[in-house]
Every structure is written in structure tokens, then in C-alpha cells.
Design brief:
24-stranded parallel sheet, single chain, Pectate Lyase C-like
């Protein structure tokens, strides 16, 4: 009986003890500052486990390590961490609960000097993730950044650099923010980052001499967008299902010296968009070795676009392989190099000598596509009897056939070997396997796909394409 009565008392005692223990875990960031004050400059300061509440401002070169067990909680006000001195490292923390007033641009971490290192942290419920301002030679790597649950237009940037040259941004995961954006920053290496459910995966403004490699950008409004930025190389990035209002996989506006090489561009609204790039008379652009598949438009360009060499790419089952704004021509660009053009899944030619190069040029001539370029609302008639009637009329009356938008003088009849980031996982090496992938991507529109198959042109069964399907992996 006495033992029975003692059980509630024991529960109360345990609850009180647990409450005291839990309360003891909540500390002030002043405790971290005391540890830093007691350390020598550039020393390693290990922060004990616990939840540290308040805004942490560091103005001393130090290496701060939370070992994955310390939580910095901003309490919903301002920047959680602010770095005012160079040679600070912050790693191994959960950084959460910044302010949310848009005008103040509150961050998980804001740096005002460089170099600094921000690595192996987890950001939760932050308006902006990491913001570098005039912080050259810095490193941002292996962070996971999740934003506040807000509509897209009100979110902050996951990672932002302003006037911060010679930085490395690698292996970060950004989900549910606005952009990873780079302003007036040069000589950057941006690699192996994964950005999803955001606005622009990677966005550059007036930033030059940079390499973007092996980033994965999916389910954003835009994958990569470059504006007024020169001498940038994009290589082996995976850019999939970016389908916002513009929906560009890669977009270039007024950029010089751009190389787009060995990228996956799958199921975007537009695979590659070229707007007056290059913009200088003496500049060139290179688009080579890319897989451009299952997009609404594979390559879209403005008619003033010039001096791009577009070769050795694979264009598979895009609703429109190539289009020009306003129905213009892209004749000032080169669709082959050194006798090698591109692989087109709708090429209707042949390869009599079996050398892998079509014996006739690829010259897309479509009256309906020409009309569509001038009047986008006609897209509703794609794959409809109306489109078939227009194309039949153009074939019956050659005077109605438009001039080709461009000419690929050496189209490939076999798939080239491409050095892609994810081909071993998601991209097969034969057109039939790629078509199967396309059916999977469009599983929700299976009926539409079946209807479309009934209207495919005879070129799908042409000798050239049959031969391409036999090429071994």
C-alpha cells in the first residue's frame, strides 16, 4: 500500500528532475562568448551540447566547433550569428530561428569580413541562410539549409555572396529558399551543391571567371541563370524538372565566353535559353556534350544570338528541339564543329556509308512551329489535327514552307558517348531507354503520351534512327 502511494510521488520527482535537466540545456550565447574570451586567437573552442539562445556576434579570429550537438537559436530576431572579423570558422552547429522581417534580411550566418569558413552546419527556420558581404577567400561547404515556410516571393536566399572573390561553395544542400545568388564576385568554384524547391538554383549577376560543376538543381523555377557574367564554365551539372514561369534549365543573358558542357537537361520547360549571349562582337560561346531531353523546348534563343558553336549534343524527344523568339533564324550560330553535329531524335535522313554522320543536313522546316514562335497561344494545338492539317498544307504547297530556322550540316545518327553526372543512374545510352525514362517522367500524362505516339512523324522509323537504336551502350 505504501509502495503504491509512493509511485505518484516518484513520478512527480522524476518530472521535476527532468524539467530541471531540460531547463539546464537552455543557455545564453553569453556562455559561448566567455569561452571565446578565455581562448587565444585562432584557437579551437569546443562548445558544449545545449541550446544557446540569443544572437551571437563574433569579432575575434576563432575556430568554433559545436560537434553537431550545440544549437544556436536566434529567438526569431535578427541574425542568429554575425561574423565581423576574418579567420573565423563555425562548424557543427544547428543554427535556427532567425528573424523574418524581410527589410532587415535576417540570416542564419552573416559574414562581414573574410576569409571565413562555414561548414557542416544545419540551418532551420531561417529567412536567409548564409550571407557573405566583402568576404573574399571564404569557404562554404557541407551545410544543410532549410528556409521558413513562406510563399516563394517572400523567402530569402539560401546562400548569397556580395563582392566576395575567390570563394569555394561546395556540397551544400538548399531546400525551400529563394536563390543561391552571386553578385559582383569573381573566381568562384561552385560545385556539388543540391538545390530544390527554390526559385533560381544558381543565379549570377556581374560575376566572372567562375566554374559551376556537378551541381544538382531540381524542381526549382529556374536551374541556372547568368546575367551580365563572363567566362563561366558549366560542366556536368544535373538540371531536372525546373518548370516555373520561365522554367529555364540554363539561361544566359548578355554573357560572353560561356561554356556549357556535359550537362543533363531533362524535363524542364526550356533546356537552354540564349538571350544575346555572347553579347560582344568578338566573343564566342560553346554548347557541347549535353543531354537535352524531354523538355518543352530543347534550345530557345533570341534571333540576335550569334557565334555559338552547338555540337556533339543529344536532343531527345523535346516537344520543340530548337526554337527562336518571334520565328526568327539562328543562322549566325554554328550547329557543327570539325564535321560533327548533334544527335536529333526526329532526324529523317540516312547514313548510307555507316560513318555515324547523316548524309543529308538536318533542316527543321515546320509551318506550325513557325507560327507558334510568333503566337505562343497556339501551343494548345500541339499534336492535334489542326497541327497535322497545317503541316500537310505546307507539304502540298511548297511555297508555304518556311525557310529552316537553322541547319545542322553533319547530324549524328548514333548517340555519342557523353560524360554526364548521372547517366549511370537516370540516363541510359540508347534512345529507346531514354524514351522509357521520358514515359516515367510523364506517368501522370500517360494518355497524352499514347495519343502523341499516334501522331509521330515517319522519321521515327527511319533507317538513321533505327541504326541509332542499335548502337551498343
Amino acid at each position: 500500500m505504501n509502495a503504491t502511494r509512493s509511485i505518484p510521488a516518484l513520478i512527480i520527482l522524476l518530472a521535476i528532475a527532468f524539467g530541471v535537466s531540460a531547463e539546464a540545456q537552455h543557455k545564453s550565447t553569453d556562455e559561448i562568448l566567455r569561452l571565446i574570451d578565455a581562448a587565444e586567437p585562432r584557437a579551437v573552442v569546443v562548445v558544449p551540447p545545449g541550446v544557446y539562445q540569443g544572437n551571437l556576434v563574433l569579432d575575434k579570429p576563432i575556430e568554433l566547433d559545436g560537434q553537431g550537438l550545440a544549437i544556436l537559436d536566434g529567438g526569431g530576431k535578427g541574425n542568429v550569428v554575425e561574423l565581423l572579423a576574418a579567420n573565423i570558422t563555425i562548424r557543427g552547429f544547428v543554427i535556427r530561428n532567425s528573424g523574418k522581417t524581410v527589410s532587415g534580411e535576417p540570416c542564419g550566418v552573416r559574414a562581414m569580413a573574410g576569409p571565413i569558413v562555414i561548414e557542416n552546419n544545419r540551418f532551420e527556420d531561417v529567412l536567409f541562410g548564409i550571407d557573405l558581404r566583402e568576404s573574399p577567400d571564404s569557404i562554404i561547404r557541407d551545410n544543410v539549409i532549410h528556409g521558413k515556410d513562406m510563399e516563394l516571393g517572400r523567402r530569402g536566399d539560401g546562400i548569397r555572396l556580395w563582392w566576395s572573390h575567390n570563394c569555394i561553395v561546395e556540397r551544400n544542400e538548399v531546400n525551400g529558399l529563394r536563390d543561391m545568388v552571386f553578385w559582383y564576385s569573381e573566381n568562384l568554384t561552385i560545385s556539388q551543391n543540391h538545390v530544390t524547391n527554390s526559385r533560381y538554383g544558381l543565379h549570377f549577376m556581374y560575376s566572372h571567371n567562375t566554374i559551376l560543376k556537378e551541381n544538382q538543381l531540381s524542381a526549382n523555377s529556374v536551374g541556372i541563370y547568368l546575367m551580365y557574367s563572363n567566362n563561366i564554365k558549366m560542366v556536368r551539372n544535373s538540371i531536372v524538372n525546373n518548370r516555373g514561369a520561365s522554367g529555364y534549365g540554363i539561361g544566359l543573358k548578355d554573357c560572353d565566353g560561356i561554356i556549357v558542357e556535359n550537362n543533363d537537361l531533362l524535363a524542364n520547360r526550356v533546356g537552354i535559353y540564349l538571350d544575346n549571349s555572347p553579347s560582344s562582337v568578338d566573343s564566342t560561346g560553346l554548347v557541347t556534350g549535353n543531354m537535352v531531353a524531354f523538355n518543352e523546348i530543347g534550345l530557345l534563343a533570341t534571333p540576335i544570338t550569334h557565334d555559338n558553336t552547338i555540337s556533339h549534343n543529344v536532343f531527345i524527344e523535346n516537344e520543340e528541339q530548337v526554337s527562336a523568339h518571334g520565328g526568327g533564324k539562328l543562322s549566325r550560330n554554328h550547329f557543327s564543329a570539325d564535321g560533327i553535329g548533334n544527335f536529333w531524335s526526329n532526324y529523317a535522313g540516312f547514313d548510307k556509308d555507316d560513318n555515324g554522320i547523316g548524309d543529308i543536313a538536318y533542316e527543321p522546316r515546320s509551318l506550325f512551329r513557325s507560327l507558334l514562335a510568333r503566337e505562343p497561344n497556339l501551343r494548345i494545338f500541339l499534336h492535334s489535327p489542326a497541327q497535322q492539317a497545317i503541316e500537310l498544307t505546307a507539304r502540298a504547297f511548297p511555297d508555304l514552307r518556311p525557310e529552316p530556322m537553322f541547319v545542322d550540316p553533319a547530324p549524328l545518327t548514333r548517340l555519342p558517348q557523353l560524360d554526364l553526372l548521372v547517366q549511370s543512374k537516370t540516363v541510359a545510352r540508347t534512345p529507346m531507354a531514354l524514351l522509357a525514362l521520358g514515359l516515367l517522367l510523364g506517368a501522370g500524362a500517360g494518355g497524352w503520351m499514347i495519343a502523341r505516339q499516334r501522331t509521330l512523324p515517319a522519321s521515327v522509323g527511319s533507317p538513321a534512327n533505327q541504326q541509332a537504336r542499335k548502337v551498343p551502350a
